[in-house]
Design goal:
Length: 297
């Protein structure tokens, strides 16, 4: 719902419940660090990664999910992985997950894939990540044939990453929920993978956008497996991304129980459609999230 409707509806829950956390000393501190998927501010990170990280830290973000790892050079945002780790340490920031380009290796040899996974592991270890995440498939890859063979591939990757002491997760979009002869790609992926090797990163925007299920229903079907969440809002007209509180997703009602889900990390994200600019968007989303949503985590 839009911000003004959200706030009006919130009044029915009791005024005290909606006071800022600072005004409610009985509310315990948040259990999880406020996270941000850095793809949201990709242009700013490309121009000045260190300055951008300082700015978003001042907004309250403490933990990040990275993207765009250069496996050939071993770099994040133009910095060698070890050097970027030092940047994070100096700023007292953490990276708990990374989106890596696995879909480019869907049709490559097992040796090429294994080598790429080793490179991802090396980069993830340098940043002390907890998870390596499969984030995407190109449009031409979204076929029933791909979904049928993907579980074995994900299990293989998960086994290699788990053996290295890290976690592996699959991130959904909306296309996995499309029907394929009475089943969906998501059902094939989730039911065909080993829960000990392949965890799930739920993108709640895309679940709500697809409209075939809900985050609570998914968690109820696979408790303990949704270790990471993506939280973003949906524009009421275009259904594109928008700032938290500016769209139609009411997170006070759709959020699953974090314990039941197995939640370890969450990230706010907005992939585009910024009202003003990316940095203003992450600031506005952070303000709204801290004021109205963070208490549920």
């Amino acid at each position: 719902m839009k911000r003004r409707n959200f706030l009006a509806a919130a009044a029915t829950l009791g005024a005290a419940a909606w006071l800022p956390a600072a005004a409610c000393p009985m509310i315990s501190p948040p259990k999880y660090k406020m996270g941000l998927q850095l793809f949201t501010i990709r242009d700013d990170m490309a121009k000045d990664a260190i300055g951008t990280l300082r700015e978003v830290k001042a907004m309250g973000y403490e933990d990040f999910e990275v993207y765009g790892f250069d496996e050939v050079k071993g770099e994040f945002y133009g910095y060698p992985a070890a050097e970027f780790s030092t940047v994070l340490e100096d700023l007292n920031l953490t990276v708990s997950s990374g989106h890596f380009g696995f879909s480019d290796y869907l049709d490559k040899s097992s040796d090429e894939l294994a080598r790429f996974v080793d490179q991802c592991i090396e980069g993830a270890r340098a940043l002390n990540m907890n998870y390596i995440t499969w984030p995407w498939m190109a449009p031409e890859q979204r076929t029933l044939a791909t979904y049928q063979r993907l579980p074995d591939l994900l299990n293989t990757i998960g086994e290699q990453i788990t053996a290295a002491g890290l976690g592996f997760a699959y991130h959904n979009h909306g296309f996995e929920f499309e029907d394929h002869d009475g089943t969906t790609g998501y059902d094939l992926i989730v039911n065909g993978t080993d829960p000990t090797l392949v965890k799930l990163q739920i993108d709640m925007y895309w679940v709500m956008h697809a409209g075939t299920t809900t985050p609570k229903e998914l968690v109820a079907a696979h408790p303990g497996r949704y270790v990471m969440w993506h939280i973003k809002d949906m524009h009421p007209v275009s259904r594109d991304y928008t700032e938290l509180g500016n769209g139609t997703i009411d997170y006070t009602t759709i959020l699953p129980d974090p314990t039941e889900a197995g939640l370890e990390f969450y990230y706010l994200e907005q992939g585009g459609n910024y009202t003003y600019n990316p940095m203003r968007s992450v600031a506005d989303s952070a303000e709204f999230f801290k004021r109205y949503v963070q208490r549920y985590l």
